[in-house]
């Protein structure tokens, strides 16, 4: 058992979290990091930085205390001049990955988190209603809110760009197979499936709400794949279309609680013939959660900011649920942490099941 | 220089901060900790906890992942039952200190931090206006906002209860001296001065805005100290009353940038005779900021949530400013970290100066 002092330090670190987050992000937002990256050999006083970014030197001094302590920015105490420290080690591709995450947390989460407890009690995302007058889940509600949608979309693009190639490397598709991309939105997953798996006579169908059909068909046309990709409109909780050999469920099951996940998996099992296959791609928790940074992020993200339910599970849990729904789990792959950038929080898993006879 | 991976981990930890904070706080807000503290020998499943606090077992499972990882709550993986872990080590007095801090950060800071960069650029607390329609500094604005004032007041009570006895232990007041409590609000500091320093013929005067006079006088009356405590109305930036031997400046200078601190100190020096004394009580940063938790908290608190200026300084900085304003620094005392609860962020300093001839 941790000591009293260790426990008090844990609580202190928790309460410092929001303060640290916006302090660090504000150093980027003000343009201080950009300025220093553009002139890497220049040394800047608080006066010079303040004049350049529209802040007082006093505010610059205060705001850079934490980045200096954290080794992001260096301060020469003798001259009062700042230069990049650890941040000098990062490249454009790192900032292009880290900053959309920080901005997403600021825009989507920071204010909504205030209502986390209310959202858990109500079973709906109270912050969406209180702050933005929106109802439904985050994904439904933000179709009409540019700020939220673009902050979330930029983060998600950074994730899928990294994850999808790895997913398709691990999916086996045979010649002539019929593939269903469940909850496939406006068809991007279907297009990627075809492109990554150039097998003969491959047919990929995107299944999602009927209102997505027009955009999906336009996307297939634009990709030159109208002959290989098609769309079926429907609602996964009301029925899954039959006649497919392989069902892909990407970035979807983690949005739901156990009962809903089982409903979806059972509907998929019911639509497949024995021997038919399902691949699920989900963020997962490691079996030993003490090794995880995901448990720091996802519970308050799903419960307070997006769905008021859901969250990743361990591979062992998803596997058990697949078995319970009528599948035999044939393969489970987890992203190798060593191949991921050190800042990345979600660790994904792919679990493959075969419909039992 | 930190490595690239260390730098990316620093940024990851920063962005996880708000998520962790509300996850942990919500476990308290839902009543989970109270429930477990009341029945310390009971083991609870997610179903039982959910039923007791009005949440789904799925939400309880997700929400308790982080407290389990952090050693606050224990989970028996075999039975799925939760008990207190490190939190069992804390007593009522710990929760009475920690929870007002967490609540203050939620209520005062979490939403306002969204506007930190705007506040720094504007030189005013943009969040007060955007979120609450309030103008001025936090301390002025929240006189009319119960939620903000009470969240802040509960935290401040926990701080002053801890700090003020230590401050008065370190102040030397002679018989018959006249003491001015600068920016003394509604007289509590004057009352405490008299009570802690029962020297003969002590006269303590509270100096603050005239609109505080009636409440201050009522407080003196209620404390039975109307004969020893008095009030002078005014504005420290327009002039400091003369005729005092000793001026106390408590919890005040940290609210201002350098130029304003110097204005205040020069006004105090101008009002004192040579040999007159000033004692300042302020949160301070250690000379080596890498040892500090205060730099994690105060910059975004002052710049984004309360004043849009100010913040603690090092003792060496305050000492230099006192010298610059016409004082000789005769003594500087810093709170001993070893005597403070491990969760406490502000470290206070007392700096004593004598008006130079």
Can you walk me through this structure?
The structure is a homodimer of 357-residue chains. Chain A is α/β, with parallel strands linked by helices and 357 residues long. In chain A, 48% of the residues lie in helices and 16% in strands. Chain A contains 14 helices and 11 strands. Chain A has helices at 4-29, 32-38, 46-53, 57-69, 92-110, 116-122, 126-132, 138-141, 146-169, 188-196, 213-222, 258-271, 294-306, 315-324; strands at 44-45, 73-76, 81-84, 178-182, 203-208, 229-233, 246-250, 277-285, 313-314, 327-334, 348-355. In chain A, the strands form 2 sheets. In chain A, strands 4, 5, 6, 7, 8, 9, 10 and 11 form an 8-stranded mixed sheet that branches. In chain A, strands 1-3-2 form a 3-stranded antiparallel sheet. In chain A, helix 10 links the parallel strand 4 (178-182) and strand 5. The longest helix of chain A has 26 residues, at 4-29. Chain A starts with a helix and ends with a strand. At the A-B interface, helix 1, helix 4, helix 5, helix 6 and helix 13 of A face helix 1, helix 4, helix 5, helix 6 and helix 13 of B. Chains A, B: This is O-methyltransferase C-terminal domain-containing protein. Chains A, B: InterPro entries: COMT-like, COMT_C, SAM-dependent_MTases_sf, WH-like_DNA-bd_sf, WH_DNA-bd_sf. Chains A, B: Residues 114-328 form the O-methyltransferase C-terminal domain.
């Amino acid at each position: 058992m941790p000591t009293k002092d260790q426990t008090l330090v844990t609580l202190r670190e928790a309460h410092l979290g929001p303060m640290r987050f916006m302090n660090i992000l504000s150093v980027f937002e003000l343009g201080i990091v950009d300025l220093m990256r553009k002139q890497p050999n220049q040394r800047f006083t608080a006066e010079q930085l303040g004049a350049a970014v529209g802040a007082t030197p006093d505010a610059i001094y205060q705001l850079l205390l934490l980045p200096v302590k954290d080794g992001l920015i260096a301060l020469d105490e003798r001259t009062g001049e700042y230069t990049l420290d650890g941040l000098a080690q990062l490249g454009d591709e790192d900032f292009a990955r880290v900053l959309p995450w920080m901005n997403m947390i600021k825009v989507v989460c920071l204010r909504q988190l205030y209502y986390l407890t209310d959202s858990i009690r109500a079973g709906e995302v109270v912050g969406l209603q209180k702050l933005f007058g929106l109802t439904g889940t985050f994904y439904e509600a933000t179709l009409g809110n540019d700020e939220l949608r673009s902050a979330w979309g930029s983060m998600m693009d950074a994730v899928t760009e990294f994850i999808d190639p790895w997913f398709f490397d691990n999916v086996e598709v045979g010649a002539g197979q019929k593939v269903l991309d469940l909850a496939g939105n406006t068809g991007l997953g279907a297009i990627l499936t075809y492109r990554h798996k150039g097998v003969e006579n491959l047919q990929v169908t995107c299944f999602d709400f009927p209102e997505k059909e027009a955009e999906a068909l336009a996307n297939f046309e634009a990709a030159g794949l109208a002959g290989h990709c098609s769309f079926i409109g429907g609602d996964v909780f009301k029925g899954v279309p039959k006649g497919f050999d392989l069902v892909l469920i990407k970035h979807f099951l983690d949005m739901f609680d156990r009962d809903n996940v089982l409903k979806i998996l059972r509907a998929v099992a019911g639509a497949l013939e024995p021997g038919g296959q399902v691949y699920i791609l989900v963020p997962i928790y490691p079996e030993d959660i003490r090794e995880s940074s995901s448990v720091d992020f996802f519970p308050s993200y799903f419960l307070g900011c997006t769905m008021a339910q859901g969250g990743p599970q361990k591979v062992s849990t998803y596997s058990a649920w697949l078995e319970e729904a009528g599948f035999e789990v044939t393969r489970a792959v987890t992203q190798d942490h060593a191949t991921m950038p050190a800042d990345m929080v979600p660790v994904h898993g792919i679990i493959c099941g075969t419909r039992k006879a």
